[in-house]
Specification:
Layout (H helix, E strand, L loop, with lengths): L1 H16 L3 H11 L5 H7 L6 H40 L18 H15 L3 E2 L5 E2 L1 H4 L32 E2 L5 H10 L3 E10 L10 E11 L4 H16 L6 E8 L2 E14 L2 E4 L4 E11 L1 H6 L8 E8 H9 L12 H7 L19
Parallel strand pairs: 1-4
Antiparallel strand pairs: 2-3, 4-5, 5-10, 6-7, 7-8, 7-9, 9-10
Bound molecules: phenylalanine (PHE).
Amino acid sequence: MQDTDALKDRLIAAISSAGDVESLEQIRVSSVGRKGEVSLLMRELGRMTPEERMVRGPELNALKDEVNLAISRRRDELAEAALQLRLSEEWMDVTMPGRTRRAGTLHPVSQVTEEVIAIFGGLGFSVAEGPQIETDWHNFDALNMPPEHPARQEHDTFYMHSDGNDGHPPHVLRTHTSPVQIRHMKSHGVPCRVIAPGRVYRADYDQTHTPMFHQYEGLCLDRDVSMANLKWTLEEFCRSFFELEGVELRFRASHFPFTEPSAEVDIRCSWADGQLKIGTGDDWLEILGCGMVHPKVLEAGGVDPDQWQGFAFGMGIDRLAMLKYGIPDLRAFFDSHVSWLRHYGFPPLDVPTLHAGLSRTGL
Ligand code: PHE
């Protein structure tokens, strides 16, 4: 009896001080396991007299039961403690604000394109499109620039690969949006009032030129459309776009093979402290080319020049974005630097619109 009590006390003490499941398991193996202390004692029962066994058997069984019970209690305690520890370490404050994710921004080119479409939409113009890989004929010949025409050289054209055996000149990356004039006349006829925004390509690269940039073309044909209509349309556009009542445009006689007469248009501006201000001042900044569509161009588009006439113009979208939003370097438009896009981009749900006012609201 004495020895079992001492053994029991020792085992129970060891069990209750076991600090983790592994040491508890070791105690179990060395006590009630197959070769454990208690098991070895029980093995001796066989060698005892029946009387001795009557006393010793229940004693040892009780010891074994107590040890097992103590072990399972301790195991529960350890499991509970481990759970509490995890719960205290892995807590989460569900009342904290969520992690904000930055929304992407609209590129200034997309924004300005939308503004241009909205303004001309209000003037009754719809949107036309043409391919960026264009035939030599649509990009040049149909626009009154036959192969030997010197104006072709001014365009720094990118040519597509051609094996030269099909008898056609190689296709080009369109150097301007003017070929859309031809495509639209051919597909929709007259009268018409369209703008055609899109990408154009020229082999040129400096602070104000990139090999790919954006233009939009305007084309308005009817029986009696005149240069006066052109002037009013462009002034109306600039008034809306730059939000300037007294906007002043200057029409300078110029030359394009596809318009006659032709003009380049400057907008009044000033430079103060390196800042460009549109609308007032003594400087002029060129913003577009335009003119009355040349009869040969109408013919190429399948339109009878004795019945129909009208104006066309071409404006740089990137240029407009630089002017309106004060962006100094055109090259950065196409570098895709995230910090630039965040700074100059427009929050998609808070873009300037015609009805809310076109000036920037998101900053
Ligand atoms: N296509 C001309 C350019 O890219 C612009 C233009 C368009 C001029 C229409 C007159 C009429 O420079």
